Amino acid sequence: MSSLLLDEETSHKLSSKLKWDNLSNSNDLEIDSGSISASTSSSHEKPNKDIPQGTTVSEKESETNNQKSKKPKDKKIKQNQQHQPEVDEHPPVFTKPLYQIPDKPYNELSPADKILYKFNEITVNKEKYWLAHTGLTDYQLKIRIKDFLPDNWKDKPTIFYDPRFTLAIYISEIKHQLLENESNNEDSVVVPFAWSDWVDLTMLNEELLKPEGQRKNCEYMKATHHIPPRDPNYCINNAEITRYDLEEMGLPSTDFVPGFAVKKSPANKASNEVRMWEGKSHLLTYAANPLGIVLLSKDGVYEAKIDGKQRIVDGELFTNYLKYNNLEPTHDDDAKVIVNPVKEFNSLLAQVKALPLDPHEDVYGMAAKIKQTDESASRELYLPETAFNYQQDRIDLQIAEYEHRMNKLQALTTNELIFDQKQINELRFTRSEKMYFEGLKYSNKFQLNNEPTYFRMARLVFGNEENEKDAGWHYEWRFFNGALRYLKPGWNREELQIREKVLLDRILRNWFRFANEKGIISWIAHGPLLSWYWDGLLFPFDEDIDIQMPAEELARFSRLYNQTLVIEDITEGFGKFFIDCSTFVHHRGKSYKENHIDARFIDIDTGSYIDITGLGISNEAVPEKYKELVAKNEAQGKPRPVYNCRNLHFSSYDELSPLRFTMMGGVPLYVPNRIEEILKDEYSKGMTSYHYDGFFFIDAINLWIHYTKLEFLFQGQEYKLTDGSGKVDVDKFTNLVQSMTMDQVVQLLDKEEDILLEYYLTKDVTDIHKQELTYLFNLPNGVKTKIGHVEGQKSDGDISGNLEYHKFTSKIKFQTPFRRSVFNYEWIDRPRYHKDDN
Question: For residue 440, which of 619, 562, 585, 600 has the smallest C-alpha distance?
Fold first, then answer.
């Protein structure tokens, strides 16, 4: 069997019905009608009489209960129900087709057929290979009605959390408000909000169940800090809380505070445990609400405004839900209801059309380009140079326009002779605009070297038994729920690695789902761009995702969506992501106060995030390679076509535009124009080095694998350093890896199930990525070319003028998620399949 990549026979067998034909467009999936097993408790807490419990239910049980509840209680409801469409209660599931292989014993199959045999096993055996089946499961929750009626929560400070409960209640409320208003107008839908319904704060129950005097306090937190907090009053004890504080918190009394209330980040280092206590206390008490909710779907979005701090159980949301489902509020112990967010979401889709993007908001035509049906049309995005020209004159102009508008509003509302309600409605500020205007004025007061730091991370004490080297720089402090590699009780290290992949894949997917639906221009940069080059996936050793956008677009994004909570398409998962934009997005010069990042797209379940940076013109000195270009433009009186982020990464206009439409991990997104030039500047050996931090790239399967899982293949061969250290000689090991045979690949897949599953999940898209590289780069042997033998990027004209390339990109669509949802993995799968480390 030939070494290198794949021989012709193997390549044909593994590629027939792979690539595009075998991928699932996530907009067009089949429905799985099989039953769901398991009845795993949804709560992370041990049962307690003060904390209601929900129970995960099987589909069979759900069907039985739904039949009982279908009879309407009155004629009016019955009439309304007659016009309601049939609603599917299940999410879509994609199952790969089985491959045709010879009818022979496994040992007699060729290496290529052995791999296909293994793939078929994974497809068929969903229980054993559950990680490879990424459809949403266990999405229905049975609860006792009386446990969630407002009367039962008047004096109950404890917290109940289950995303299925929250999402079902909110989606139902949003749908009915839209139906009543007969319009998908986000301004017409208003809902209350409490972070405790949306983030798992049940860790605080440990304190809330105690008498107030026995609860943890601020001194407990400060005792673990490596230095005193920047503001000693960042935290106050219950005894110091005033009624004005309680009003700000939206809490009835200090009994609802866990002993300490955190106002802001202490801006120092602490243990994982204390960082979680602090972040969760802040969310429960002083944290401001988002301004709105955006619910993603495959055909647009649904939006709602948020007003007021109130838990579901303290207001009308749950009783409304019962009313909408023809159920009566009851204190009967036996009365139960199954809440199903998937059913509610599908009902919303069936009855209210999703809000499409207003063409006027598709400023650069990106959304229209992506959704066009002409397969020969280009999906490339040519950005105007003005998109990067966001300087002080633009800031001054905006401030002047907002102040003029504000003055006119004040005159209209304080002078009865010119009062005009129509003009007032036209001129009024939204809360988002008011926040943006205030941010413009505030940031304008500061020079680059004295602006305060905006973002705060969950900085951790490291270099100890609990935490070897994670400094906490990759987690937003408010939503921190334990470091990605922090070994919580009941977890093992393999589970942490899986969780990390799940989180990063889902964050990337949901950012670009949101950005593509809203016409927000962005592209992957830094590590993710290099990772895309190698195999079209995220690196397994990288913990963050970097996104760039033009400075003008960054300002628009901040004005429209700052402080927005984005909800994942419910048929794919229950992810929730918070958009937080720095007050200083209007500054383009170097940051001296850790404000290198302009915005974040934060997974509120974990605190992991995407870093978003704007590229624009500044007065900073450019690198040598750009000086001639800048001088030429300056001589002609033109703005310089070289742009930087606040961490002084520079790119020229021609390096960035046109953006090229591609796919990463099954997610449609954009990459900059001159990929090779950008990557060689930032990573001198990044495009050729097969090794990084113990991982080696395997051309035969297009994956990065840690050397410890490969060593058994090379027993008896010399690949260690000769200095007696026992360390791997990178060059020798790289040569062995590059010459792996297909027999060795089969041995690897036989031994390492996690690699087999990763290969099964990613092979189709990595094959497509290799095909895509043939349009963008010079590959002497076509798709058989090893990534280390690629001979440079093609010219802009060769790429843009290639009709076949445009036909290729016309097929790019969202694919089925590669990973289980965060909810499924953390709440259901991991506890169900957990095995202790040996």
Answer: 585
Phi/psi for 593 (5° steps) reads -125, 40
pLDDT band at 82 (very low <50, low <70, confident <90, very high): very low
Sign of the torsion angle spanned by Cα atoms 736, 740, 743, 744 = positive
pLDDT of residue 28: 42
| pLDDT the model gives residue 46 | 52
| Angle in degrees, CA 503, 509, 515, rounded to 5 | 130
Q: Where are the alpha helices (DSSP H) in 189-231?
A: 195-198, 205-208, 218-222
CA distance 76 to 232: 60
pLDDT at 125: 95
Q: SS3 for 410?
A: helix
Judge contact between 435 and 582, C-beta under 8 A. Answer: no
Degrees, nearest 5: CA angle 565-93-667? 50
| Average confidence (pLDDT) over 241-270 | 96
Please state, in angstroms and as integers, the Cα–Cα distance from residue 93 to each residue in 39, 137, 228, 460, 678, following that order: 20, 10, 52, 40, 39
Nearest to 106 by CA among 645, 749, 650: 749
pLDDT (mean) for 407-421:
91
What is the value of pTM for the model shown? 0.92
Q: How far apart are CA 703 and CA 713, in angstroms?
A: 16
pLDDT recorded at residue 37: 30
pLDDT at 837 over 80: no
How far apart CA 443 and CA 734 sit, in angstroms, is: 50
The residue written with tokens 């639906």 in the block is 517
pLDDT mean across residues, the chain: 90
Residue 580, H or E segment: strand 576-581
CA nearest to 318, candidates 307, 309, 308, 330? 330
Nearest to 642 by CA among 658, 664, 624, 666: 624
| Interatomic CA distance for residues 42 and 663, integer angstroms | 35
What is the 8-class DSSP label of residue 287? Answer: P
Q: Are 54 and 309 in contact (CB under 8 A)?
A: no
- On whether the CB atoms of residues 478 and 458 are closer than 8 A, the answer is no
Where is pLDDT greater, at 165 or 66? 165
Q: What is the pLDDT of residue 24?
A: 53
469 falls in which pLDDT band (50, 70, 90)?
Answer: confident
Does the pLDDT value for residue 739 go beyond 90?
yes
pLDDT average, residue stretch 611-623: 97
Pure H helices in 372-486: 392-414, 421-427, 431-443
- Picking from 245, 160, 274, 147, the residue whose alpha carbon sits closest to that of residue 208 is 160
Between CA 548 and CA 165 the distance in angstroms is: 35
- In which element (H, E) is residue 833 found? helix 830-833
The tokens for 144 are 């006792």
d(CA 548, CA 565): 20
Question: How many CA atoms lie within 13 Å of 460's alpha carbon, on the beta-carbon side?
Answer: 28
Can you give the pLDDT at residue 47?
Answer: 60
Report whether pLDDT(21) > 80: no
- The single-letter DSSP state of residue 827 is I
Q: How far apart are CA 600 and CA 591, in angstroms?
A: 16
Determine the pLDDT at residue 95: 79
> CA-CA distance, 578 to 288, in Å (whole number)?
12
Beta-carbon neighbour count of residue 792 at 10 Å? 10
What is residue 25's predicted lDDT score, i.e. its pLDDT?
Answer: 56
What single letter denotes the amino acid at residue 729?
D
Residues in Cβ contact with 346 at an 8 Å cutoff, skipping those fewer than 6 apart: 87, 88, 89, 571
Extract the tokens encoding 646: 């606040």
750/748 Cα distance (integer angstroms): 5
Q: Are 611 and 545 in contact (CB under 8 A)?
A: yes
CB 610 within 8 A of CB 601: yes
Does residue 604 contact residue 479 with C-beta atoms inside 8 Å? yes
Per-residue pLDDT, averaged over 174-182, amounts to 91
Residue 99: what are its φ and ψ, rounded to 5°?
Answer: -90, 145
Mean pLDDT score, 21-40: 40
